[in-house]
Specification:
Distance between the termini of chain A: 18 Å
Oligomer: homodimer
CATH superfamily of the largest domain in chain A: NAD(P)-binding Rossmann-like Domain
CATH class of the largest domain in chain A: Alpha Beta
Radius of gyration of chain A: 21 Å
Number of domains of chain A: 2
CATH topology of the largest domain in chain A: Rossmann fold
Shape of chain A: globular
Strand order of the largest sheet of chain A: 4-3-2-5-6-7
CATH architecture of the largest domain in chain A: 3-Layer(aba) Sandwich
Largest sheet of chain A: 6 strands, parallel
Chain lengths: 303, 303
């Protein structure tokens, strides 16, 4: 992963896309961390030759232009009309109306979103005459930063993207989105949008909930902020890192996935209560067995 | 931080210690992650010229010798007798009996421990005729790995060490331990042992409790282990990293600091319940305000 400001685009890869001799024209709606980083990688990989940005926040629009993330900024309708590919990268609660607006303008465009929840988004366009143009996807990468200035090069590469409900997608649309993720180096996995949200609650959304509440606990109890700063080791930093995440992104994710997240939150509270009982009753044997069980997470972590 | 196996000791810094022309003789009791890493840095910095290991686990003893972490392995009494400096790096529940045994053998040795809890350890030797030789300390660095093979070079450098109850230490003993931490590049801060444990619960022990319970929740709910593996992003990995930590180290830390940890655990459970209420009642306004408040942790994190 390299920072936007430290490395120049070379453009030397523009002839490498096997599916098409010249890069595609694309619209990215929402030029923040994900939209902006995608814009960089799609240009770098040569998958796109021209990127139009659609951005509701005028400051972000100006910044995206200034940083060279997009070639131009246009209103949604004009942008969609001139593009072969449309990527929706707005917060998940804004995705549904934007997706409908895009589908209504679509002729033969290929459309995807990059949201962290999938069930409600997929359900919202069920039965739309252009439903097949849309390929719901979730590239699993991000940082705790946000906005166009958070965009970085090469973040997606080597990570996984989930493609949902592929049987409801037109074959050419599915192939186009698969080729896009191939171009930026992502590994593709497939599942239905309902399963996606269940798993995402376990392996992503609960991590954020835990990190937010850990930060709140520490800020509440530890009024000596300088002491936190001095004493905080790497362990603390890695556990609360996600608490820096943008509420504009994460409130909608939590709300769209609230049923699943509530399940996992309850489980997490139960586990903390269990740990509390061990401490309260000096039950070292049970505490050790809980920690040993938790150690099994080693098996599923990559490093 | 460089790995033990990738960089050779040069020994070229052996004349740099200002306090003493030749390095000290030291005993390290417990040659695991912390004891082993200290051994490497104390030799590399020239602060020590000879390190004797005391190790209850025969396999660890052989491994420490084989890896070159220590010059020899001796029984506690013999090791203490031939050393100027004694460092106790065993789990915190074993520290109290070991510390008493060391103090009983002490003539003019300088003694420290490196435990993550301080109150009970400091209290246990109150009134001992050799109390002044002991400087309670807590170098804040570690990884989730354990044993002699987890030892790395340069881990401590740039991090903070806490020195406790300095007014109860003999001036030469305090100066010796300060010089030791200076030699391995640590920043020193001072507090009483009771305050240390309160703060450590907030900024370290609760992070571990949270991470252990997050791992347990996910392992409990998510039976499709392959799916976790595929979907887990960097956020999940950083939040559960500490759940890989060794129960032999962490059960005693939790138990020694149980009163403080119980306080912070209760706070953490309250915060999760608050988040759950927001979800249950679709209270996006309150959820956003909680996340915004949590974002303030940015101010106290180094990066």
């Amino acid at each position: 992963m390299t920072n936007l400001h430290t490395e120049k685009q070379t453009g030397e890869k523009t002839t490498k896309t096997p599916e098409k001799q010249t890069g595609r024209t694309a619209t990215i709606i929402g030029i923040g961390l994900i939209g902006g980083s995608l814009a960089l990688d799609l240009k770098d990989s040569g998958f796109c030759s021209h990127i139009t940005g659609v951005e509701a926040n005028p400051e972000h629009a100006a910044e995206a232009k200034k940083l060279g993330l997009v070639d131009e900024i246009l209103p949604l309708k004009d942008a969609v009309k001139k593009s072969e590919l449309v990527i929706i990268a707005v917060p998940v609660d804004a995705t549904i109306p934007v997706l409908k607006a895009v589908l209504d303008e679509t002729e033969n465009q290929i459309i995807t979103d990059v949201g962290s929840t999938k069930e409600k988004i997929a359900k919202s366009v069920k039965g739309h005459p252009r439903r097949g143009r849309f390929v719901p996807s979730h590239p699993i990468w991000g940082t705790e930063f946000s906005g166009p200035s958070a965009a970085v090069r090469g973040g997606f590469s080597g990570n996984v993207t989930v493609i949902c409900d592929k049987n409801e997608c037109d074959p050419d649309s599915l192939a186009g989105i698969e080729a896009m993720y191939d171009a930026i180096g992502m590994k593709k996995i497939y599942m239905d949008s309902v399963s996606h949200d269940v798993h995402a609650a376990y392996v992503s959304h609960i991590s954020h909930a835990t990190s937010f509440s850990l930060a709140l606990s520490v800020l509440e109890k530890e009024k000596e902020v300088d002491t936190i700063f001095q004493l905080a080791g790497a362990g603390f930093e890695s556990t609360v890192r996600l608490a820096k995440s943008n509420p504009e992104t994460w409130v909608p994710i939590f709300m769209e996935n609230r049923e699943n997240l509530l399940d996992v939150l309850e489980e997490q509270i139960e586990r903390l209560l269990e740990m509390k009982e061990c401490l309260r009753h000096n039950d070292t044997k049970r505490l050790k067995s809980l920690m040993k069980k938790a150690n099994e997470i080693k098996k599923v972590l990559k490093k």
